[in-house]
Amino acid sequence: ALPRDLEGRRVVVSAGGTAEPLDPVRTLGNRSSGRQGYALARVAAQRGAHVTLVAGSTADLAPPAAVDLVRVRTTEEMRTAVLDAGKGAEVVVMAAAVADFRPLDVAGFKIKKTDAEPEAIRLTRNPDILRELVAEQVPGRLVVGFAAETGDAEHDVLSFGRAKLARKGCDLLVVNAVGAGGDGRHSAFEGSDNEGWLLGADGSSTPLPMGSKAALAARVWDAVGARLS
Length: 229
Ligand code: C5P
What we know:
Elements: E1 10-15, E2 20-23, E3 26-28, H1 35-46, E4 50-55, E5 68-71, H2 75-86, E6 91-94, E7 101-103, E8 123-125, H3 129-135, E9 142-149, H4 154-168, E10 172-177, E11 193-200, E12 205-212, H5 213-227
Parallel strand pairs: 1-4, 1-6, 4-5, 6-9, 9-10
Antiparallel strand pairs: 2-3, 7-8, 10-11, 11-12
Helix pairs in contact: 1-5
């Protein structure tokens, strides 16, 4: 039987990618499938938590049973939904692939193809939701970040992760060792398996062996559960 160590805990999980409009019909987005975030939400609900799943663009996934699903598109929408649901939560896990930049100007009408050279798209920085969560300094609330890193040397991936944990200020960071498949197809994004390390702000580092995204989710919740007061 599954542990019920998250019984009654309120948790928020973000999943999938954000997509930023360029005009009414086009967006800039990414290939996140949302599978890892969905697995985290499903496992937390199975272990007794009240889960709000804030989902951006995803593959065609069945929503986990017994979670509150909030669908968002842009980073700004995800920010509002996560900060809002995060107010009453004891744990927030940012598994979403949030777009770092968005187009500075959003055309009100579909951008037309002409014989002239296309204009360059100017970008502006998006808010960093994870850092905003950490900056809120809610006492007792755990904030978990994700980092997808490429790099064959284990050492590099871990030191990138350690630096990111310090920069973001979160309590735990899941470092995803995504394969360097240039077309993205052989990476952890779209597959059903995942591996990496779980780094703690206390300096701890736990390997997350290759396995299903549900298995990785279970290990993340084990670590979170052990840290909840
Ligand atoms: O900075 P980087 O994108 O590598 O960090 C990844 C972590 O930060 C993930 O947990 C992601 O959900 C979160 N993030 C965020 N807002 C952003 C960019 C990333 O919350 N604008």
